[in-house]
């Protein structure tokens, strides 16, 4: 096996449709930005699997990428993160609990265990920052080769 055989790629999006009134919408978007800014920069002493650099957010208006829905993108490559996947999910759900959102999707692509898609849907339409339990669904896809 080469050094690249154990790479895992994680990417996805957190979606939020802010409140109808402009002032509340701006506060919600800024709260989400603040949650991302509270993540560690790069590798930290507590071995965080999420870092600020892996997230990207468009600006607050239609001219900078936000028509109605706020889209927060993220992506990172790891060395065999599937072995630490429970920790990754826990850290991601902690982030989600601190944000406003309607749904979130995470894609995990691994060499050994295929592709997984994880999806969170806010109950009652939208999630506001809270410690309430989150519900996640998972789909698994694996490409299998046949030996001849």
UniProtKB/TrEMBL annotation:
<protein>
    <submittedName>
        <fullName>Uncharacterized protein</fullName>
    </submittedName>
</protein>
């Amino acid at each position: 096996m080469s050094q690249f055989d154990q790479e895992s790629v994680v990417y996805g999006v957190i979606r939020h449709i802010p409140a109808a009134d402009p002032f509340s919408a701006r506060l919600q978007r800024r709260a989400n930005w603040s949650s991302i800014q509270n993540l560690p920069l790069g590798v930290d002493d507590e071995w965080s699997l999420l870092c600020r650099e892996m997230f990207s957010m468009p600006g607050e208006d239609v001219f900078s990428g936000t028509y109605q829905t706020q889209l927060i993108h993220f992506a990172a490559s790891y060395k065999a993160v599937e072995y630490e996947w429970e920790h990754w999910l826990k850290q991601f759900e902690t982030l989600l609990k601190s944000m406003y959102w309607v749904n979130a999707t995470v894609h995990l692509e691994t060499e050994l265990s295929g592709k997984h898609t994880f999806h969170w849907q806010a109950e009652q339409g939208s999630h506001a920052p809270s410690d309430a339990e989150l519900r996640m669904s998972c789909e698994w896809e694996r490409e299998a080769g046949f030996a001849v």
